[in-house]
UniProtKB/TrEMBL annotation, chain A:
Keyword Hydrolase: no
Name of this chain's protein: ABC-2 type transport system ATP-binding protein
SMART domains in UniProt: AAA
Domain annotation ABC transporter: ranges: 5-229
Alphabetized UniProt keyword annotations: ATP-binding, Nucleotide-binding, Transport
MF GO annotations: ATP binding; ATP hydrolysis activity
Species per Swiss-Prot/TrEMBL record: Kribbella antiqua
Family membership: Belongs to the ABC transporter superfamily.
From TrEMBL, chain B:
An example molecular function term from Gene Ontology annotations: ABC-type transporter activity
Record's keyword annotation contains Transmembrane: yes
Record protein name field: ABC-type transport system involved in multi-copper enzyme maturation permease subunit
PANTHER family on file: INTEGRAL MEMBRANE PROTEIN-RELATED, MEMBRANE PROTEIN
Transmembrane helix listed as a keyword: yes
Pfam family, one: ABC2_membrane_4
Superkingdom, natural source: Bacteria
Keywords carried by this UniProt record: Membrane, Transmembrane, Transmembrane helix
Membrane-crossing residue ranges in chain numbering: 16-36, 72-97, 118-144, 164-184, 191-213, 256-275
A GO CC term assigned to this protein in UniProt: plasma membrane
Organism of derivation: Kribbella antiqua
Length: 298, 281
């Protein structure tokens, strides 16, 4: 499968500061890709390079098979970089109208995207009177105006209330399920875990991981407290690798087999006082990776 | 390209600051071209404001035959400053609001976006020139009718030439505003520097050169304001004594025209070159 975004050895230097340092990144067609990293890690710089706003110092970048910033590539890409930057003195509708003119998009598409982000009722109000959440939604509407194959969204849930965040998550999932490719940068790791198929983690300008969300979170385990413990250990060994932590046992097995594990233990005459699944959250992985990186650098 | 042009026109049309600047230019033209002279005329020769100028001369200055003088006489300095502000707010606003990144991630390239902005500004400047001309023409008709003055108009070709010259003067200052805005990625600094240049530094330089360093007159003769004033002087054919501030015959009309065209080209190329090469952060 040809990648929609292929980045290798991407570097961006501002004077003595290395903002992006040899980043490799691949986004496949139809996937929702989460781009994670702490503030100042190089996420926005990378996204600006992908949209042709800034030129890389070195490295190869291909977006939709072409160089970023080319008219035919931009025509198939919708983006919102950093924050929704629109004209404060114009209404939401006029902002979309003029973007539609630039992008050569038919006007009927404006109503469709306004409906998609639930802004039809406020479309005639000035952009400057919008709340942060409404501005964010209009920014996403602007990104979707071209009905793009590739959508690049930088922190799209910034400023949204919980209901707005839920709606945005739903919208991004819908975009992904429509066959569109979405590259999403976010600080909200729980959100990325829910929405994304794959994630890349960038720290201090360097890519420290790029995996499926599940791969990144690692093997899932069952935590079991049972007596006698040695006998339980032997029985559980039949399901997978068993580790002992304090007075609990952890067995690497699909948590969906928890009922089966419980039945086998009970049938073996073992008393089970606790059985639960444990999963590493993406947040745990993120902090592990970014703090390791910091320790290395330091 | 047509879509980008339409988008730029929409932005200008809906921006109140553009119309406030136009209104300021219009009001200044009417006040200095008609209101103050008419007050001087109506209050008679004894008023020191008329400085002994015969009332008939004051009236002649307000009649249709002098409509071009009143329309574009203020362009080299006052309206020029307003045009510079227009260029600075239109292009500088894209940087301060961050909207440049939004429009550059649509389909058109950087060159096309900038070319559309220049075309839209050229259109708006033409609207300004025609609007001010229409208002001045109406005032002169009103005064001629009220005072039984002659209803003689300049020849159509002269009007066309005068308005085109006025448009070029304003366009040159407007492009100066855009190139400063691109250079500083801002609105306030280009306006400050540009207006100080137009209203103060150029006049000061010309004065110093004329009085203290006459050998350096060739330098003051290539300044934009000097050539703007010379072009207006040339296309209106006004007498030196009637010329408003900034309008004088420092260089010939043909040379002034070529110099202003060169300034327009330099400003446009500089803005385009910088915009195309620079990162948008």
């Amino acid at each position: 499968m040809d990648a929609l975004i292929e980045v290798s050895g991407l570097t961006k230097r501002y004077g003595d500061t290395l903002a992006v340092d040899g980043v490799d990144l691949t986004v496949l067609p139809g996937e929702v890709y989460g781009f994670l990293g702490p503030n100042g890690a190089g996420k926005t710089t990378t996204l600006r390079i992908l949209t042709g706003l800034i030129a890389p110092t070195s490295g190869d970048v291909r977006v939709l098979g072409g160089a970023p910033g080319r008219a035919d590539v931009l025509g198939r890409t919708g983006s919102m970089i950093e924050s929704p930057a629109l004209y404060p003195y114009l209404s939401g509708l006029d902002n979309l109208r003029l973007l539609a003119e630039y992008a050569e998009v038919p006007r009927k598409r404006i109503n469709e995207v306004l409906e998609l982000v639930d802004l039809t009722d406020r479309a005639r109000d000035r952009f400057s009177t919008y709340s942060l959440g409404m501005k964010q939604r209009l920014g996403v509407a602007a990104a979707l105006l071209k009905d793009p194959e590739l959508v690049i969204l930088d922190e799209p849930t910034n400023g949204l209330d919980p209901a707005g965040m839920r709606d945005m998550r739903r919208l991004i999932r819908e975009l992904g399920s429509d066959g569109r490719t979405v590259l999403l940068s976010s600080h909200l790791l729980g959100e990325v875990q829910q929405i994304c198929d794959r994630v890349g983690i960038i720290n201090s300008g360097r890519m420290v991981a790029e995996h499926n969300v599940e791969e990144l979170r690692g093997e899932q385990e069952l935590v079991i407290r049972a007596t006698p413990r040695n006998k339980a250990h032997d029985v559980l060994a039949g399901f997978g690798t068993v580790h002992q932590y304090d007075d609990t046992l952890r067995v690497q097995v699909d948590p969906q087999r928890a009922a089966e594990v419980n039945r086998v233990l009970v049938e073996a005459g073992i008393e089970v006082s606790e059985l639960r699944s444990t999963e590493r959250a993406l947040e745990d992985v993120f902090f592990e990776l970014t703090s390791e990186e910091k320790a290395d650098v330091g | 390209m047509l879509g980008s042009y339409r988008a730029e026109v929409l932005k200008l049309r809906k921006r109140s600051a553009v119309w406030v600047l136009f209104g300021a230019g219009l009001v200044l033209s009417l006040i200095f071209g008609y209101l103050l002279p008419y007050l001087g005329y109506a209050t008679g020769d004894e008023n020191p404001q008329t400085d002994g100028i015969p009332r008939s001369e004051i009236l002649r200055g307000m009649l249709p035959e002098r409509v071009l003088d009143n329309t574009i006489g203020g362009y080299p300095i006052f309206a020029g400053a307003l045009a510079l502000v227009l260029g600075a707010i239109v292009v500088g606003g894209e940087y301060t609001w961050g909207t440049l990144k939004t429009i550059l991630t649509q389909r058109p390239g950087r060159g096309a976006v900038l070319a559309s902005q220049f075309l839209a500004l050229a259109t708006m400047i033409a609207v300004w020139v025609l609007g001010i001309f229409a208002a001045c023409a109406l005032c002169s008709i009103g005064i001629a009718a009220a005072e039984n003055g002659a209803m003689n108009w300049p020849a159509p070709l002269d009007i066309l030439q005068g308005l085109a010259g006025g448009w070029l003067v304003l366009m040159m200052w407007c492009l100066a505003g855009t190139v400063l805005a691109v250079a500083f990625r801002n609105v306030a600094l280009p306006i400050g520097l540009g207006v100080v240049w137009i209203l103060g530094i150029e006049t000061l330089l010309a004065g110093v050169v004329n009085s203290l360093l006459p050998d350096l007159e060739f330098l003051s003769d290539v300044l934009p304001g000097t050539n703007a004033g010379s072009l207006v002087f040339s296309v209106t054919g006004m007498a030196t004594a009637d010329a408003p501030p900034g309008v004088r015959d420092a260089v010939g009309g043909g040379r002034a025209l070529l110099t202003l065209l060169a300034y327009c080209a330099i400003f446009a190329v500089l803005a385009a070159w910088t915009t195309r090469r620079r990162d948008v952060t």
